[in-house]
Amino acid sequence: MVLDLGQKYFGAVNCDICGMVYTATHPEDEANHAKFHRKYISCTKFNGWKNEEVMEDYPDGRIIVIGPEAPKYAHKKVEEVRALVDRELGFVEGNSLSGKDLCKTFLFISSDKKIAGCLIAEGITKGYRVIPDKEQPKAEDTDSESQRRGAVKRIRSSCVRRESHLGSWSMRRKKIASRLMEALRYHYTFGSVLRMEDIAFSDPTPDGKLFATAFSKTPQFLVYKYT
Q: What domain of life is recorded for the organism (predicted)?
């Protein structure tokens, strides 16, 4: 418990830079925030690489891709960013994506040399169609996986994605997620453009569900279990 004695900072504080919520004036919380803040700043800082694979250029930044054949230093950066994304989205840490043959990571690099968005995609063989709450899955559509998820219908899918904003709140509402999705559609498979029905979202958060519905123009978008 904390006593409110009129101090300048009191109760839960949301850091505008790293997004961490901590208790002001609480020594342990402030120490944890300071540690995470330093890690966050180091992780999102990006001065550029000599040989970048740039997919798209914009006035406010660029999108680069890191594929399986990328140098080790690029994969190391991806793992740092992935750990940060996992923490932000509530995923269990420890699942490395390096080494997956069809895995590609798209990073949005802002004009001020920061990683402002991340989209990680990998090849899969099946996805699950989200069924609106008013509908119930038919008996032939249910299996152990769909029962675990709830109202979803199993169908085939060839690509998956997950994305997250990084950086301060000033980077929100800049269509970074939409631009990363478009980069995925046009550059994941050489010589072809992915259809929306070829893309599944991994365990979307409430905000992610709203985005997936808006981008795919249907509440019955695809999902899959990220492993």
A: Eukaryota
Q: Which amino acid is at 51?
A: N
Give the whole-angstrom CA distance, residue 214 versus residue 220.
11
| 153-167 exposure pattern, b = at least 16 Cβ within 10 A, e = fewer | bbeebbbbbbbbbbb
Total Cβ atoms within 10 A of residue 143: 12
pLDDT digits (tens, 9 = 90+) for 63-91: 999 999 999 999 999 988 888 777 766 66
Taken in order 47, 50, 53, 56, the sign of the CA dihedral is positive
Q: Which of 181, 209, 176, 172 lies closest to 19, judged by CA? A: 172
Entry pTM: 0.73
H helices present in 45-129, as ranges: 72-89
Structure confidence by residue, pLDDT tens digits, 176-193:
999 999 999 999 988 889
Contact 58, 179 (CB under 8 A): yes
E-state strands within 1-148: 12-14, 21-23, 54-58, 61-66, 104-110, 115-122, 127-130
CA atoms within 13 A on the CB side of 41: 8
Query: How many Å apart are CA 102 and CA 39, to the nearest integer?
Result: 29
Tokens of 211: 């985005």
DSSP string, 174-187: SSHHHHHHHHHHHH
